[in-house]
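Annex B. Sample input.
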Amino acid sequence: MMNANSTSWDELVAAAQRVAQMKVIVAGYRERIAELKACGRPTFDEDQTLEVLLSSLELFEDYEKGIRAAV
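Annex B, continued. Sample output.
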């Protein structure tokens, strides 16, 4: 039987996992951009994608903080 506390805990775990996954993706994009710049390649598209990923990360972090406050 699930209660509100276990559901909140499950949501918190899932949210924390999403934040961790997004941080890995962001780090990968930052590495890719650094590699491209080191080779003198343009990074406009990658920079735009990174901005979207950073915005998404911020939303995931805000969601996680909201769940933490409620648990």
